[in-house]
Design goal:
This protein has helices spanning 9-28, 57-70, 86-94, 106-110, 122-125, 141-149, 161-164, 172-177, 212-240; strands at residues 32-34, 45-49, 74-76, 114-117, 153-159, 169-170, 184-185, 196-199. The chain is an alpha/beta fold. The strands form 2 sheets. Strands 1-8-5-2-4-3 form a 6-stranded mixed sheet, with helices on both faces. It has a two-stranded antiparallel sheet with strand order 6-7. It is globular and about 50 Å long. The mean pLDDT is 93. Residues 45-161 form the Phospholipid/glycerol acyltransferase domain.
Length: 246
């Protein structure tokens, strides 16, 4: 009788984290999602979301939900920090997350896939709780890629992550010890804030102009337009909730 191949540690870690993220989204954080119909069933698009909460849990919750609901892969641009943490690295590799790509997934978009980017980067998750839901400036790289590939940009707002892991301070010595942009002072376990994730209508990317100056201006206009859209979505969803925890 043939023996089945043993599962690798990466597979075990990925399945475990998938299960934990699914439970967090469905039972603990009670995530409400709207606007999934704005994401195409086929073809390429860039998903651009705000980034918040001291540990960046929003990236993993968003990916887990999209992976389950869409029935097609979404490839997220991730920080190298993710790939230095074994369990998170296993999950990221399994689901095709990528780093160190200045084109932000242009090849994947050209092949017709979905790519997700958090253009605030560490500035979004590193801001203090007193500045919650005030988006940091977006890095314009996603706008360059969207214009080069001609794909639509789909804005995504996430509300609830700020209260789940509030950043109350930072410990500089630990940040240096672990080579991190910051080491947050926050709760040991995530707080059960109720989350709302909203997917907005696609923003078309203009064709890139011929001159460098015109391309730079068009890139900035697209980046600013998406920032304004996401900030507006976040503001609306924050206003509509009666309390962060229900």
């Amino acid at each position: 009788m043939a023996e089945s191949n043993p599962r690798s540690l990466d597979e075990i870690a990925t399945d475990a984290l998938d299960g934990v993220l699914g439970w967090l989204a469905d039972e603990y954080l009670r995530v409400e999602v709207s606007g999934l119909g704005n994401i195409p069933e086929c073809g390429a698009a860039m998903l651009i979301a705000n980034h918040s909460g001291a540990w960046g849990l929003d990236a993993f919750v968003l990916h887990n939900l999209l992976h389950r609901e869409l029935g097609r892969p979404v490839y997220f641009y991730a920080s190298q920090v993710v790939f230095r943490m074994p369990a998170l690295a296993s999950y990221a590799r399994h689901h095709g997350a990528f780093a160190d790509d200045p084109t932000l997934g242009r090849d994947r978009l050209t092949d017709g896939h979905l790519v997700g980017v958090f253009p605030e980067g560490f500035d979004g998750v590193g801001k203090p709780f007193s500045q919650r839901y005030r988006l940091r400036p977006f890095s314009p790289g996603f706008a360059v890629t969207a214009m080069q590939t001609g794909v639509p940009v789909i804005p995504v707002s996430i509300v609830g992550a700020e209260e789940t892991y509030p950043k109350l301070g930072s410990i500089a010595s630990l940040a240096r010890r672990f080579d991190l942009p910051y080491f947050p002072v926050t709760t040991l376990l995530p707080l059960p804030a109720k989350w709302r994730i909203t997917v907005g209508e696609p923003v078309p990317a203009p064709a890139p102009p011929d001159s460098f100056a015109e391309r730079s201006a068009a890139t900035r206009r697209l980046c600013d337009a998406v920032w304004i859209t996401v900030q507006g979505m976040v503001d609306r969803d924050v206003r509509q909730r009666t309390h962060p925890f229900w």
